[in-house]
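Figure 2 data, in text form.
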Amino acid sequence: MLKAISRNLASLRGSTSGNATLLTALGMPVLIGGAGLGVDLSQWYMWKRELQFAVDQAAIAGAWARTDNNTESIYVERAQQEFAANLSVIEDFAVTPSVQLANFAGGSGNSVAVSATASKPLPFTNFLTGAQATVSAYAQASYERGATFTSCLIAVDDDEDGAITISGNSVLTASCGMAALSTDELAIKADGSPTVDAGWILAAGGIDQWFKDNTDDLIMEHMDGLFDPYESLDPPNPVESRVSRTYSCASTADTTTADVQTTTTVTYDYFQGSNKNNADPYVYGTPKSDTYNNTNDHGTIVANGTESGTVTSTSTSWVQVSGSGSNKIWERKTTTIRRVYNNVVVTPGQPAGNVVPGTYSNIHISCDTTFATGVYIIDGGGIDITAQYEVTGAAVMFVLKNGAYIKVRGGSDSINLTAIQASDLIARGIPSEQANELAGMLVFEDRNSEGTSRNDINGNVETVLNGTIYMPVSNITFAGTASVTSQCLMIAANTITLTGTTDMRTFCPEGSSEDTVIANTVGNVRLVA
């Protein structure tokens, strides 16, 4: 009996048939818990990634807003908008982010920091702990504002070698900047021993090493964002400037212009007789009459003494159309011209050396000369302001067309030319928007003109040029000096050469600055945390 029991116990002790069930029972809670925790962790990780992406984009959006003067004050709203736009799964339980300026890399308030949290129960962990799961995210984006540059010397050619060339012993110490749109590796170059203090030197291409070695100017090569500030403008063409005129140092007669409407009527009558003097009225075919209506001609030069009203003139002509002897048939053609004159304007003649706006082929100064306010069109020739004569002009603009040029050569007497202003252009029928854009323009070369290298400024201390000189298709050469009194002298030309003893120390009057924008650089944003 005892032996049998002993054998049974030994057999039971060696049996393994129930281990799997026991191990499964013992491991089931761990298996279920691990699966639940894995699902919760996957959900938590997805929330975390979405929240982190949203704050990253919010920080970047806020930083970009800070780079622009128009949006810098609403950077918080921009960041919050971008945050909300990048939420999907956690949209209903993510809190409004905190957006604020932060310091970065030693700067002050030069980055935007965004932080946010999202809380919600996860099925398994909430069952075990009774608490919500919370995810947090933080992002920081640094920013640098885009820069705006002005200049008082700009070459607009896009690929010329030496688009700005400074040579000889030239002096350029007006710190109002110079720039070249040329992409050539030597867009701005020096040739000789000039003295340069331009403040900043900008080029779409390269800049001569000389400037880096011999100036303290800010130098920016291969620069994006440079542009011609006057590219969209067209020269004005007011009515008074369309009148063809000739410069003379003799006195001139009055000029009368008017709007003229002309109506021409032609009638035909017939007569029978041996000659037109004793012919009697005769019916010959269908009576006919022709009338021609001409549109108004505005600003037409008419005879001095013309007054507003209607003037009619009549002329007749006879021709035999058939028959013979006393049966000859005569046709009488009567032409009646009726002219209606309106807006009659009399421009008084000028004494010697006084010039009025109009279109000139050439103006070669040969006596003391005063330019009246207005726009002067130089068509095909040039304006040559020579030495030894006093030349003045207040509120004037010279428009160069068809290869026209300008030369200013200072002598013992003074030259004082001041650019036209918006009010002067508006008074001449130029729309106010265009007038405001053209205000301050002293010389404007038509973009359709043929380029020329005949433009020279070789003034002296008595040469005063107030305004902008714009020659988009031609070179301009400076070989003297020029002063200003009322506004900075802006030179924008296809190419610019400063040579000889050029002295440009007085480009801007004291306390003034050139505010014509010629470059806008894009701001920079980086995600740094």
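Caption note: Residues 411 and 499 are 18 Å apart (CA to CA).
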